[in-house]
Amino acid sequence: MHLLATTNGGLESVAAGEIDDLVGRDASIHHRGVVEFDGDVEDVYDLHYRGRTLHRIMAVLADGVVEELADVYELTASAPVEARLPSSDFGVVGTRHGDHEFTSVDVAERVGQAVIDAYRDAAGTRLPVDLDDPTVKLEAYLYDDRFTLAVDLTGESLHKRPYRICEHDAPVRGTLAYAMLRIAGWTPTDRLVDPMAGSATIPTEAALAATGAVPRPDLEPSFGALPGYDVDRFRRRRDAYADPPSGPGTTRGGSPADRPSTGGALDASALDIEAREIRSRWRRCARVNREAAGLEDAFDVVDADAREASIDADRVVTNLPFGVRTGTDLRELYGAFVDRLEAGDIGRLVALTTSPELLPVEPTERYNIPYGRLDAAIVVWEP
């Protein structure tokens, strides 16, 4: 079957790399923030408990070229909706980009009517519609002349990590934090320092990946309501991965551990990860989240000023502050921070910032991403 996966916009290549690592599938960009690939039910299960850069996974019901609204209806009506959808309430979200004489709402309405008609013709039953909290959520994408209809398999987004009990004022998503670790090329045997850690999302995501922990152990996926999926089998696979057999040479669930990886999940106490934060409020927050993730032994939370503390690390990965009152203050902060990097011994810096122009270094790589309503960039620098 053909699948879609959503991720952080601008980081589609990173998500595609993770999909390849986890299930051996070649993913490409469908549109910004969405990748597409061929897979099977087992891939769906694996990605839901092992994927760390992904938000939602969807199964494609219809895909083709359209010129007008009537084509949207016909393409949807020809899809095997009776075989792929349950006899449950559904809702449609329409997304349209390009030059059209109709709106996203029009697309969603045409899709909804086609689903109702096709299901009734095939099964003799009229599906109920629930636009607020549907059992089955359909995503209708129209980008220029390409129309894709997919059913959401995930439900609540995978980026909503359960350890996020104490939130920073400007939090970074766990999926984005892990993508930054992948960009950094970090492995669990590397020394990792986050000099401005806030509530410690980046160190926590690193430790979760290194120890092989399931990022969303609390997830009840939407595919449990769909025909062709076995949610009990999914839970058994997830539990086996989370609780591997003990003894030398064993790995989680009998599968290769997630990248970054050394080939197997490590004990938390073997990691060399440091979360530095100058503000006591956020250090307390970081410790709360670390405990919620069950990672008390995985990394240290340290009182340190990024403008003054020396840095020696294989990888420095951080979310640079952007809420300082003036641009001059930010320039001073960024400059002093880079001075510490240059005076120390680091392998690679990966930093998220809304003001990349204030960094007094020339990045070797740059990924432009949305950060809420702001434009931001992930920059990579190697001394």
UniProtKB/TrEMBL annotation:
Which top EC class applies here?
A: transferase
Which InterPro entries does UniProt cross-reference here?
Answer: RlmKL-like_Mtase, RlmL_1st, SAM-dependent_MTases_sf, THUMP_dom
Supply the EC number(s): 2.1.1.256
UniProt keyword terms in alphabetical order:
Methyltransferase, RNA-binding, Transferase
Q: Which residues cross the membrane?
A: none
- Location of the region described as Disordered in the Swiss-Prot/TrEMBL record: 239-268
Gene3D superfamilies, alphabetized: 3.30.2130.30, Vaccinia Virus protein VP39 (3.40.50.150)
What is the protein's given name? tRNA (Guanine(6)-N(2))-dimethyltransferase
The gene is trm14
Q: Which organism is it from?
A: Natronomonas moolapensis (strain DSM 18674 / CECT 7526 / JCM 14361 / 8.8.11)
List, alphabetically, the SMART domains matched.
THUMP
Which is a GO BP term held by this UniProt record? tRNA processing
Molecular function GO labels: RNA binding; rRNA (guanine-N2-)-methyltransferase activity; rRNA (guanine-N7-)-methyltransferase activity; tRNA (guanine(6)-N2)-methyltransferase activity
**Start and end of every THUMP domain?**
42-153
Kindly indicate whether the keyword Nucleus belongs to this entry: no
